[in-house]
Amino acid sequence: MAVPIEPHFVDSNHDALYAESVNNPDRFWGTLARKRLRWIKDFDTVKDCDLKLGKISWFLGGKLNVSDNCLDRQVEQHPDRVAFIWEKDKTGDHETITYKQMLEMTCQVANTFKQYGVVKGDRVAVYMPMTPLLAAVMLACARIGAVHSVVFAGFSAEALKSRILDASCKIVVTADQGIRGGKAIELKKTVDSAVAGCDCVKNVFVMHRTGVQVPWVDGRDVHLEEAMKQQPTTCPVEPLDSEDPLFMLYTSGSTGKPKGLVHTQAGYLLYAGMTIEHVFDYRPGDVFACVADIGWITGHTYVVYGPLGIGATCVLFESTPVYPDAGRYWEMVDRLKITQFYTAPTALRLLIKCGNEHVTPYNRDTLRVLGCVGEPLNWTAWKWYHSTVGSDKCTVVDTWFQTETGGIAITPRPSSDHSTPKPGFPMSPFFGVEPVLYSKEGELLKGNDITGHLCINEPMPGMARTIYGDHQRFIDTYYKPHPGVYFTGDGAYRDADGHYQITGRVDDVINAKGHRLGTAEVESAMNKDHRIAESAVVGYPHEIFGEGVFAFLILKDGVKDDEKVIFEDLEKLVRKWIAAFAVPNVFLIVPGLPKTRSGKIMRRILRKVAASEYDQLGDVSTLANPSIVEEIKAKHMLLTSKEQ
User: Fold this and answer.
1) Is residue 98 in some structural domain?
2) Which of 236, 329, 607, 621 has the most C-beta neighbours closer than 10 Å?
3) Same domain? 209 vs 294
4) How many Å apart are CA 399 and CA 406, to the nearest integer?
5) What's 560's domain CATH number?
6) pLDDT (tens digit, 9 = 90+) per residue, 439-494?
7) Which CATH number goes with the domain that contains 227?
8) 588 contacts 553 by C-beta, under 8 angstroms
9) Is residue 407 located within the same domain as residue 489?
10) Using one digit for the tens of pLDDT, what is the confidence trace for 70-95?
11) Cα(270)–Cα(58) distance, integer angstroms
């Protein structure tokens, strides 16, 4: 007898439903797609996938519109329900925006874009502060079939420019300034620098966040709100194929060039809504707070598309966890009566150091689920989150997912054993997710109590479909290392009970302050300095950030400049070409780097040195220059002794 598949599950059905999701994905996802999404034209094929070719297609033949599902459909049922609570930078200053207001705002933005020639398939770069208008811009693109590329508004002008050019963006949407932690951020000036030389950009739309005067280019720049006022509050939706692009989001890789991952319509929206509802136990009337910036996949899925797709009320957070003090999150929980709270381990570790006196004054009784994402959550942070913040009564969901997966893939919920979580373990796969472990040699690892490369055996609906303009790179990165499965780039441990723990990246990518960063990008930026002969960047354990950025540097012959001056100049370069979060925490000038005879840098050795794990360097005799390891170690020991 087939298990009934309903739009809203109950935990007691978990085992049977999970089995159905992996054994009969066509029935499982097909049933849910028809029940949970509104279609303009029904689909005729649930999926057509071949992971060896990097081919992932869901709900073929179907047509729908994501903006219609997130707004129009919700307005028909509950127009006055709050869609967003906009928590502004200043404590206590918040606004509520209903679904009806969001729909009207979105339609005005969409009509404005259409007036300026934006059509289906055009790419739109978005570099904005955390405001409801940012969400409206995304949904307006979805409404008319344009493809938005949101760039975190902390990236430099050069980083923004590279993303604009790679996608050939037709317009850029920004603001006069952003506000974060009481400080103004010069967004328009950054955009002006970025679009210089970008012939593809026809217009720059400018939102008024602070109202300050900014440089203006007549004929190119447009006052967004003023243009919106001239537009009607209705706009027809564009019927879109289920596999038409919805958005692009750039993420770092093991090369110097970021890759624009493309997500499509129906599968992504279905998966986003499913995960927010079941991982976080979202119920009507709850107030869900994901404090991630929309510039990252967490913000896309758990601030905009996931919540709005199921008609939820979500907090849109503009500030920082320590402004004006370390009680900001918990004061907000008290004031807004938040029921689910989703943040990153980096923020938790920072708040732990600030002391419990910033938590306990505030009432947190409304909290039911505490979520975390971005990197593994260590035991100390997990315990503090559960006991101090959650008063030992909240479920803690330490989740794992990636820009590539679109939504949460491994999580303590939903599962049949979520009541006994293991700190540091995301634990169990979500519906439709079938994780497998491979050795680095490509052997499938069976059984438990084993570590390997984390792969996913079958495609989920929410996964990225390609890298914009370079599908071969998509195949080479994700589907060539272990043919027939998706290679996540992460390592994982499967314990004796079959639960998963993420052990970190297995490629040259690190989590810098919770943001994925390719080491090659940082090296490329620093190598622009005329004094640098070569550089190597690795991650190392950091008390606050989880993983810090450590830069080993070789100077060119004859350089006599003061080290402090060189380091300051390198910091400026990394800020210019990437962003502040990418600046190395530690610089160390060394006489050489450990290399194989083919010239490859042995980063494994550098990671051990950076972590002061000198007794774990392993065999270095096969290096082309084994003696260099002792020299690097001596330089590092001298550095650490000075710091102490």
Assistant:
1) no
2) 329
3) no
4) 13
5) 3.30.300.30
6) 989 999 999 999 999 999 999 999 999 999 999 999 999 999 999 999 999 889 99
7) 3.40.50.980
8) yes
9) yes
10) 999 999 999 999 999 999 999 999 99
11) 11
